[in-house]
Amino acid sequence: MCIQYATKSIEYGKKKCSILLQNENGPCALIALVNVLLLETQFENETEDLKTLVKDSKKVQQHELLEVIASIALHITKSKTKHDYIDTSISKEESDMSKLLTLLPNLNTGLNVNPIFDGTFEDSAELSLFRLFGVRLVHGWIIGNGQDENSELYKLSYDEALNMYAHADEISNNKGYQDNVNETCIFEKSDKLKSFLNDSSTQLTSDGICHLQKILPNNTLSVLFRNDHFATLLKRDDILYTLVTDLGYKMQSTIIWESLISTDSSLNDFYDSDFMENLPIHEDILTGKEIISDNNEMTSIDRKMALQLQEEEDRKMAKSMSKIVDQKHVQLKTKQTNKQHHKKTLNSERKKKMSSQPKSQNISPSQNSSTSSKRKSNSTCVIM
């Protein structure tokens, strides 16, 4: 199946340009990364072919897009010493282009990222792609500030959190609560994690938004990981904005950015290319004509519908996270059962081996006395 992406013409930095819109699979890392390359002025020399491809096509084929991206990667690698935006921490292994280029198609599917609750990520091969292009990957799924009551969880990754939560569940279900210090600590951490995961099902917190505002310089673009999706993120005048790439806004030229000031979607607003607040234009689905209303009734209805869809997505995300925790629990339980079975098998084999050995012969009193004296003079202890 040939994957293709729709395009949209917008204005950014007083210049006309085109961006990619999401397909039916939702916002992917490839779209977010490509849109940064299209909009960021420091990539102008490397992205001329990419801009031409997106500008001249109503729909861009994925294979054509990947070819151009691979070409840009090669060009950047050859001239990386000439650019300040290239990450100088790229390892020798990551400089192997053949290895990196095989990872490019993964940007359109599931990307292996493991966020840590301090705002960083556990390193992985896929992250090297972002470092190669000098594009920052960030997230706002942060618990506390590292100095509060949640400081002990601050450095945990999402995978570690799931393992800890599943381990506490395993102890509770199979071993029983023993009320020792170690288990009490595990249960306390598990309760905090469960509360945190439930309260942040969209993988964004208020602490996370503050963190992003603090670490990102003004007028810079990056890729935001949130809710298992990726979005192009801009910080401008100390305000965060995400690029609107939903196909539903393709024909609405005044809807370009959405503010990211709250985890509550109802508090975020849409903005045009000049960062003036705008409301979506309502269109008749059948005729494509704008619907003119004398009041804000239609706007209110649309906003409520959008919020309902967001809440439904949040519920799906929470359900998905719960399923992952259950899977971790099953994995730990299976692992423990296998260990117990292996231990029983070893014990059984050992007993069989011992029973198959010849029994010791009867020793005469004189032999017994002689043997005893020898044992006394020999300090070696043989344990059977």
TrEMBL record:
Residues 355-372 have a biased composition (Low complexity). Residues 329-384 are annotated as: Disordered. GO terms for cellular component: cell periphery; cytosol. InterPro entries: MINDY, MINDY_domain. GO terms for biological process: protein K48-linked deubiquitination. Pfam families: MINDY_DUB. GO terms for molecular function: cysteine-type carboxypeptidase activity; cysteine-type deubiquitinase activity; K48-linked deubiquitinase activity. Residues 330-354 have a biased composition (Basic residues). It comes from the Eukaryota. Residues 4-275 form the MINDY deubiquitinase domain. PANTHER family: NF-E2 INDUCIBLE PROTEIN, UBIQUITIN CARBOXYL-TERMINAL HYDROLASE. This is MINDY deubiquitinase domain-containing protein. The lineage of its organism: Eukaryota, Fungi, Dikarya, Ascomycota, Saccharomycotina.
